[in-house]
């Protein structure tokens, strides 16, 4: 994963919300603060002896965390959760050992890992191909959760996270807009002004004895500006099993409906529950239909691996042959087919699919390989490993509420578990004290970057971006750390 020289993955926005993402005067000022020459993109060396700069002006993200994952083998989840059966887990304080060193706001940002699918949707002239790409993006958004059994840190009220990736063509901002219930709002836009991606998420967590279930709530909206189209959907339910004994494992299940509000087309995806013998584990099946409910194509695959599509007739014929016991021999598509059907073949490593491939199908998406040491890094993807990166000079640019500045997450990432646990307790107590003080003075909490409103496409309540974040006026941000 590469990004351009402009500092730390968020040239972001040193410009205003109304800019086109060009290198502005504000960028020059920031570059001076960081002792960078904004005009020297072709050079070799290290900035302050730390950051490797290649000749093409691209610098690499870090590829590992500062310290390996802390072992959870000596801790019993059951000893904590046995008193919580049927309760809302967002109100339960969990020991830090069950966390991963990312805030939930950073976890949301992982939706953008496969942003090339949005770019493909923007480039297609055919609305069916656009819906296929959007469907693949919706599935890919949950793929990073595979084997991620650690709990992200609950964001503090007013906490934010920003990320701009010039190499991937987007910038992203999120804010924790409510503590009870916990609601996270986010907004992302293409640096080329080709898309807007936004939403609010407030998962309801429940413990059911052997599993923890996260029921998704909140609408996700993707707007393709060139095509004047808007798509909305809600994520599937996520469940972590074997929280008492055995190896933790995760599944997604439920029906996801993606609606194109411009054409009336709809994609219905069924994330299948595991089943008694695990036959349906991770499986996704569904179809795209037009406004008259005519099936246009069938989609199948696994959210942990890949997604394919084929025409309904081919799919039905294949299923009938399968029931008769005469299913076609499993056919693996060649690398040439994959490259011809996906412009981002370089981002699609060789993965041993366990999906039964139907001849003639088109590949929509394939999961990225994880780093070789991913199991020692909370099963993070390469994208996730980079999210909490904090390099010299960043603190002068970030909002003081940014997740990267949270001392509990920072200490956990560095392997200082005792300090991280104490800092987590301190921050939670500070948040409680601030809430009591506001109640005493009858002062309401005001969000900084988002406001409550109505989703213009679904008519439901939503949190909408107010704008202004990338003007970088952080003078009135709350002191939460």
Quick tags:
two-stranded antiparallel sheet, disordered N terminus, 481 residues, alpha+beta, globular, Porin, single chain, 15-stranded antiparallel β-sheet, 23 strands, 10 helices
In percent, how helical is the residue content?
A: 10-25%
- Report the sheet with the most strands, covering strand number, pairing sense and barrel closure: 15 strands, antiparallel
**How many strands appear in the DSSP assignment?**
23
Number of continuous helical runs = 10
Structural domain tally: 1
Derived from helix and strand composition plus strand pairing, the structural class reads: alpha+beta
What distance lies between the first and last C-alpha atoms, to the nearest angstrom?
31 Å
Note the overall shape: globular
**Uncertain parts:** 1-51, 328-352
Write down the overall mean pLDDT.
81
CATH A-level architecture: Beta Barrel
In angstroms, what is the radius of gyration? 23 Å
CATH class: Mainly Beta
| CATH-derived topology | Porin
Strand content: 25-35%
GO biological process, one term: lipid transport
Protein name: Oxysterol-binding protein
Biased composition (Basic and acidic residues): 319-342
Family: Belongs to the OSBP family.
């Amino acid at each position: 994963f590469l990004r351009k020289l402009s500092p730390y993955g968020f040239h972001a926005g040193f410009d205003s919300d109304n800019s086109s993402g060009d290198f502005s005067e504000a960028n020059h000022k920031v570059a001076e603060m960081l002792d960078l020459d904004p005009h020297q993109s072709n050079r070799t060396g290290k900035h302050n002896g730390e950051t490797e700069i290649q000749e093409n002006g691209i610098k690499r993200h870090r590829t590992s965390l500062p310290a390996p994952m802390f072992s959870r083998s000596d801790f019993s989840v059951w000893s904590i959760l046995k008193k919580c059966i049927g309760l809302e887990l967002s109100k339960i304080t969990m020991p830090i050992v069950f966390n991963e060193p990312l805030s939930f706001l950073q976890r949301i940002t992982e939706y953008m890992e496969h942003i090339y699918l949005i770019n493909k949707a923007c480039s297609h002239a055919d609305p069916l191909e656009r819906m296929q790409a959007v469907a693949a993006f919706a599935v890919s958004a949950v793929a990073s959760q595979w084997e991620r059994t650690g709990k992200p840190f609950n964001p503090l009220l007013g906490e934010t996270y920003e990320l701009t990736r010039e190499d991937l063509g987007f910038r992203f901002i999120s804010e924790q807009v409510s503590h009870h219930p916990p609601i996270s709002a986010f907004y992302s836009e293409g640096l080329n002004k080709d898309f807007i991606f936004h939403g609010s998420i407030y998962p309801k967590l429940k413990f059911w004895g052997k599993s923890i279930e996260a029921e998704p709530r909140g609408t996700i909206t993707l707007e393709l500006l060139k095509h004047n189209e808007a798509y909305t959907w809600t994520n599937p339910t996520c469940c972590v099993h074997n929280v008492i004994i055995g190896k933790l494992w995760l599944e997604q299940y439920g029906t996801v409906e993606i609606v194109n509000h411009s054409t009336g087309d709809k994609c219905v995806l069924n994330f299948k529950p595991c089943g008694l013998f695990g036959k349906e584990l991770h499986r996704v099946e569904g179809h795209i239909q037009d406004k008259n409910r005519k099936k246009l194509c069938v989609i199948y695959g696994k959210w942990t691996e890949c997604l394919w599509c084929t025409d309904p007739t081919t799919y039905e014929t294949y299923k009938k042959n399968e029931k008769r016991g005469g299913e076609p021999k499993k056919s693996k598509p060649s690398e040439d087919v994959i490259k011809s059907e996906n412009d981002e073949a370089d981002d699609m490593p060789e993965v041993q699919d366990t999906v039964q491939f139907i001849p003639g199908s088109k590949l929509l998406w394939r999961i990225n390989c994880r780093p070789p040491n991913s199991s020692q890094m909370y099963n993070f993807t390469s994208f996730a490993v980079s999210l909490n990166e904090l390099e010299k000079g960043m603190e002068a640019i970030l909002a003081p509420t940014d997740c990267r500045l949270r001392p509990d997450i920072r200490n956990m990432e560095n392997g200082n578990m005792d300090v991280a646990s104490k800092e987590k307790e301190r921050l939670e107590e500070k948040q409680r004290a601030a809430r009591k003080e506001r109640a005493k003075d009858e002062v309401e909490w005001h969000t900084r970057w988002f406001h409550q409103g109505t989703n213009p496409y679904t008519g439901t309540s939503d949190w909408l971006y107010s704008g202004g974040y990338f003007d970088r006026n952080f003078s009135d941000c709350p002191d939460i750390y």
